Request: fold
Amino acid sequence: MRILVTGFEPFGGEGRNPSAEILGLLPRRHAGLSVSTLLLPVVFGESARKAGAAIRELDPAAVLMLGQAGGRPDVTVERVAINLDDARIADNRRKKPVDRPIDPRGPAAYFSTLPVREMVAAINAAGIPASLSLSAGSFVCNHLLYSVLHQLAAGSPGSAGTMAGFIHLPWLPDQAAAKTGQASMGLDLQRTAVIAAIGAIGASLAPVRGGTR
Ligand code: PCA
Reply:
């Protein structure tokens, strides 16, 4: 069985994004899962199309998307994606949609289909602050999560039963260094958190191991 882990390029004028840097630091296998990684552009539309193509090609059992949520003090496992693009800043192609549905015919929201509570528990058990989040925002991360869950719900070929969800990561210490009073977390802890979350996902898939994936 395979897990696809995605990360995002830096955006908003910053030089780093922990979600990009973690991709190269993950083990190739963990918790019974082969780990594939994909770096995505911080661009409405294009990010979702690239992820969708990789899901069709790889047919993973799970998709774990990662992004940076600067200012959050802990690792947040997102519970929900909403059908709304509403950008406060431009994406990396200068697109800045305001109050636009992602799909006018789509449902208002989707729940993550990953074992979110177990993921938080696994990260906490590794000694790292983490919590559930009720909003992935309305920028490219929410757009990607909604679009991937929408694609999977539509049962496009090669995606039957694939679970998907999102983790937002804090700023790295040097990103927060010049921003007075802002929270951050070192890359090594963030990496350990993501590996713990993959462990929880692998454990939740274990009962179906030996199936078609
Ligand atoms: N965070 C942004 C987009 C890319 C990223 O890493 C977000 O939270 O929408």
Notes: Strands lie at 2-8, 29-30, 33-40, 62-68, 75-78, 80-82, 109-111, 130-133, 163-169. The longest helix spans residues 187-205. The longest strand covers residues 33-40. The chain has a mean pLDDT of 95.
